């Protein structure tokens, strides 16, 4: 379905980094500005000039801890809903283990990081707020080859359910006792801000100031011959109003009220008249906005989820009932024809999703249809 204007489709994006050491511990930091939940994973919010969440993660570590990390695989993407703020697409990356010498060379921004500590998985589970605790625990318990995990509110979904399910989050203790574990963790409560410090924004004003992205959910269906199902949107949906526009079935996620899997199922039902549950998450594609890429089609960045619809029997295609207000026609395309009909980025994304069907592990992490890195 075509995108519609309105804040209901907008969400926040963030990226954090899991730094392991050689003893099975992970690095957590203290947020001096968050008195309710001061313990966190290093990282922060996406900026429109960031070309990808991976770039957000690197920038945040450079700003917070004063060095450039070497990132590994995307560990998970967690979509969270909350009545008190817009939804968040939270990316969590693995980093190469830090040596004691690297950790000793931290030059933290004291406004952003008031302390740090290496914690065991159990200690981290108690110190982190419950949703973040579930997210980190899922990444720590699953095999690295399964990454990235698909999470919803910290809980594994889709293919991620095949791996060890994290136990319920332990009792939340926050930073209690952390000053006894780390010489870099300040004892007691956070110090009061300096008298000349600018006033903090209230929560509502702060959240309203954060940049937003959009998200889409699309589904890859093929027939027994391996041809992929494409649909053509009505020309009025295009800036020029005349050029045919082919794409995979799917469309915008109603971010403030549904999760990506629910959106994929709804879009297939509305566009094709089929009732089916999405299969594996095959790919995650980040499309930068104009602030990061002047040649981009859209102002805001877009995150695309590509789900597997599986191999469909020939007779079922005859049951397609197109949403006439949205779509003009459908077609089964071999790779040559699909590549000719789709935009270069859309074809690259589709090809990556098809390739992901034939290999184990989590979804492909893409930027503009191409492998992130």
Word description of this protein:
This protein has helices spanning 53-65, 100-104, 121-127, 130-141, 178-181, 203-209, 260-272, 314-317, 335-341, 344-357; strands spanning 12-18, 26-30, 39-40, 43-45, 71-80, 88-95, 115-119, 149-152, 155-156, 214-222, 228-233, 245-247, 250-252, 281-287, 302-311, 327-333, 364-367, 370-371. Helix 3 runs antiparallel to helix 4 and helix 9 runs antiparallel to helix 10 (344-357). It has 2 domains: 7-209, Nucleoside Triphosphate Pyrophosphohydrolase; 214-371, Nucleoside Triphosphate Pyrophosphohydrolase (Alpha-Beta Complex). Residues 1-5 have low confidence and may be disordered. The strands form 4 sheets. It has a 6-stranded mixed β-sheet with strand order 4-1-6-5-8-9, with helices on both faces. A hairpin with an 8-residue loop joins strand 2 and strand 3 (39-40). It has 373 residues and is α+β, with helices and mostly antiparallel strands. The protein is built from 10 helices and 18 strands.
The stretches of 5 or more residues where confidence is low (pLDDT under 50) are 1-5
Largest sheet: 6 strands, mixed
- SS strand fraction: 25-35%
State the oligomer.
single chain
Given helix and strand content, the structural type is: alpha+beta
Could you give me the name of the CATH homologous superfamily of the largest domain? Nucleoside Triphosphate Pyrophosphohydrolase
In spatial order, strands of the major sheet run 4-1-6-5-8-9
Short summary:
The protein has 373 residues and is of the alpha+beta class. The protein has two domains: 7-209, Nucleoside Triphosphate Pyrophosphohydrolase; 214-371, Nucleoside Triphosphate Pyrophosphohydrolase (Alpha-Beta Complex).
């Amino acid at each position: 379905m075509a995108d519609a204007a309105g804040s209901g489709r907008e969400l926040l994006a963030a990226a954090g980094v899991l730094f392991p050491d050689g003893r099975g511990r992970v690095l957590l930091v203290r947020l001096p500005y968050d008195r309710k939940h001061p313990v966190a994973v290093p990282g922060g919010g996406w900026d429109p000039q960031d070309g990808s969440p991976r770039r957000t993660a690197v920038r945040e570590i450079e700003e917070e801890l004063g060095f450039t990390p070497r990132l590994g695989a995307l560990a998970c993407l967690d979509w969270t809903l909350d009545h008190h703020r817009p939804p968040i697409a939270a990316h969590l990356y693995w980093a190469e283990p830090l040596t004691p010498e690297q950790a000793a060379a931290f030059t933290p921004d004291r406004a952003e990081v008031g302390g740090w500590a290496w914690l065991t998985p159990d200690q981290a589970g108690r110190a982190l707020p419950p949703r973040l605790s579930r997210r980190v625990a899922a990444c720590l318990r699953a095999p690295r080859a399964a990454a990235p995990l698909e999470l919803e509110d910290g809980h594994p979904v889709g293919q991620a359910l095949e791996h060890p399910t994290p136990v319920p989050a332990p009792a939340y203790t926050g930073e209690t006792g952390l000053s006894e574990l780390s010489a870099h963790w300040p004892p007691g409560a956070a110090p009061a801000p300096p008298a000349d410090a600018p006033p903090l924004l209230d929560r509502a004003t702060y959240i309203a100031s954060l940049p937003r992205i959009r998200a889409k959910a699309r589904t890859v269906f093929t027939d027994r011959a391996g041809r992929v199902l494409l649909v053509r949107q009505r020309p009025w949906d295009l800036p020029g109003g005349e050029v045919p526009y082919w794409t995979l079935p799917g469309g915008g996620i109603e971010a403030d009220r549904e999760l990506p899997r629910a959106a994929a199922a709804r879009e297939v039902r509305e566009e094709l008249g089929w009732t089916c549950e999405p299969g594996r998450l095959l790919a995650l594609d980040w499309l930068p906005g104009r602030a990061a890429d002047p040649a981009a089609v859209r102002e805001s960045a877009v995150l695309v989820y590509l789900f597997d619809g599986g191999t469909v029997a020939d007779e079922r295609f005859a049951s397609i009932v197109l949403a006439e207000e949205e779509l003009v026609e459908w077609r089964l395309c071999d790779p040559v024809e699909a590549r000719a009909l789709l935009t270069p980025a859309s074809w690259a994304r589709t090809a990556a999703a098809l390739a992901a069907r034939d290999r184990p592990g989590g979804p492909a992490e893409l930027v503009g249809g191409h492998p992130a890195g």
